[in-house]
């Protein structure tokens, strides 16, 4: 039985040092963000080129990817526990590149949606492997620090991705947005192949046995703390995806400021990045619970204020930018901590647990975000109302996980990485 290191300055295996390791994990996450946010400026052009009449239907370009990304996470965990992290990562990257190329050459909206599902299926491996590889090396607050730093680098992509998509559109037609994904995926595959070693020790590999897999999923799905935080993450992810689905239409159709879309979207994403950096500095001193529980309450308060402004009819592009940035700042203090706390009891089945949690939080979040997006009615009211409701749902899930108490510190010993 091997325990992960808790000192992020001390590598547990031969390979990249701490900064490069964080960068590798961050890029696994960033390829996912790039596949979502770079699309946003291109949605009108895609709709026009492929004959999509309903503007709300264009949201399928985002949701189809998220559904493929969420549903297939459940199979990658057992595969990674059996065959190792690196081979599964390479397969996922291959799918990501191939289906991005197919999306670029799509001649119908239906083919594009199918390609987006396929791209999401490939990207699902990146999400599962990112968490599993970190859990192979770290636990507890050290794991939360690594995830926060990775999340910070990853969040640079949402800030820049819409601008990157817009830049591509100024010099090339919309298929080249998908071409950028293919090039990025291929470049990262080469980097990972050369620099990332296998983190799962040979003696810790688990055979693919139905009874064992069912038992592992049952353990992951019946842990009160793990599932409570997974469902809370599902709720706040639904709010995030609701914002992503609605943002392009809000800027183009509500504020009539398409030129400010990439700037304001980047500022909102910047709120998450600043929060993640702050969390990385404070989490080992203050603890995940104090930070994330306080942030969740702030998320609910800011969402409520924003909803009140939208309902009153006084929403402007600047009130939207400020209030949404503050709300997403709170999200940045929530996401990494909730993910780390959901995984903390699951070190001995990290791959399977990561699959189960990713399946629930992404698929459920995508469905909730799509539901919010489809309510778009020419105002920001549906989106802001969704934020309030999902924030309250997340609070209920956290109270369930913590048996009705917030801010309760837990000084748990490191959980073994494998047995």
Walkthrough of the structure:
With 419 residues, the protein is an all-alpha fold. The protein is 76% helix and 0% strand. The protein has helices at residues 18-37, 43-49, 60-71, 73-83, 85-104, 109-137, 140-171, 175-195, 210-222, 224-254, 261-286, 288-312, 317-343, 350-374, 381-401. α5 runs antiparallel to α6. It is globular, with a radius of gyration of 20 Å.
Q: Which stretches of 5+ consecutive residues score pLDDT under 50?
A: 5-13, 411-419
What would you call the shape? Answer: globular
Amount of beta strand:
under 5%
Radius of gyration: 20 Å
**Helical element count?**
15
Cα separation of the termini: 5 Å
Give, in order, the helices and strands: HHHHHHHHHHHHHHH
Q: Largest sheet at a glance?
A: none
Structural class: mainly alpha
Helices and strands, with pairings:
Layout: H1 18-37, H2 43-49, H3 60-71, H4 73-83, H5 85-104, H6 109-137, H7 140-171, H8 175-195, H9 210-222, H10 224-254, H11 261-286, H12 288-312, H13 317-343, H14 350-374, H15 381-401
Helix pairs in contact: 1-6, 1-7, 1-8, 3-6, 3-14, 4-5, 4-6, 4-14, 5-6, 5-8, 6-14, 7-11, 7-13, 9-14, 10-13, 10-14, 10-15, 11-12, 11-13, 12-13, 12-15
List keywords for this structure.
single chain; 419 residues; mainly alpha; globular
């Amino acid at each position: 039985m091997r325990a992960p290191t808790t000192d992020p300055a001390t590598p547990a295996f031969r390979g990249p040092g701490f900064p490069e390791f964080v960068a590798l994990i961050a890029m696994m996450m960033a390829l996912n963000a790039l596949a979502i946010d770079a699309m946003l400026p291109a949605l009108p052009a895609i709709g026009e080129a492929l004959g999509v009449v309903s503007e709300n239907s264009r949201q399928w370009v985002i949701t189809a990817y998220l559904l493929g990304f969420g549903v297939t996470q459940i199979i990658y965990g057992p595969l990674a526990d059996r065959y190792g992290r690196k081979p599964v990562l390479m397969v996922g990257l291959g799918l990501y590149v191939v289906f991005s190329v197919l999306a670029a050459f799509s001649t119908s909206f239906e083919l594009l949606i199918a390609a987006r599902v396929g791209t999401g299926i490939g990207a699902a491996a990146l999400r599962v492997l990112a968490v599993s590889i970190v859990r192979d090396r770290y636990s507890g607050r050290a794991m939360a620090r690594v995830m926060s730093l990775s999340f910070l680098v990853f969040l640079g992509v949402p800030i820049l991705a819409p601008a990157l998509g817009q830049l591509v559109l100024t010099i090339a037609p919309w298929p080249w947005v998908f071409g950028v994904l293919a090039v990025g995926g291929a470049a990262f595959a080469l980097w990972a192949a050369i620099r990332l070693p296998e983190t799962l020790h040979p003696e810790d590999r688990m055979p693919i046995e139905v009874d064992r897999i069912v038992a592992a999923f049952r353990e992951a799905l019946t842990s009160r703390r793990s599932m409570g935080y997974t469902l809370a993450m599902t709720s706040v992810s639904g709010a995030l995806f609701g914002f992503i689905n609605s943002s392009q239409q809000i800027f183009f159709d509500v504020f009539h400021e398409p030129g400010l879309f990439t700037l304001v979207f980047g500022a909102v994403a910047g709120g998450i990045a600043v929060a993640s950096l702050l969390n990385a500095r404070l989490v080992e001193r203050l603890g995940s619970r104090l930070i994330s529980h306080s942030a969740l309450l702030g998320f609910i308060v800011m969402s409520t204020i924003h909803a009140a402004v939208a309902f009153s009819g006084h929403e402007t592009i600047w009130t939207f930018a400020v209030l949404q940035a503050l709300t997403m700042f709170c999200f940045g203090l929530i996401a990494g901590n909730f993910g780390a706390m959901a995984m903390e009891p699951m070190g001995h089945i990290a791959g399977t647990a990561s699959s189960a949690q990713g399946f629930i939080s992404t698929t459920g979040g995508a469905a909730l975000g799509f539901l919010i997006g489809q309510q778009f009615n020419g105002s920001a009211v549906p989106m802001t109302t969704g934020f309030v409701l999902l924030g309250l749902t997340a609070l209920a899930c956290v109270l369930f996980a913590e048996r009705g108490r917030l801010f309760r510190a837990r000084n748990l010993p490191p959980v073994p990485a494998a047995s």
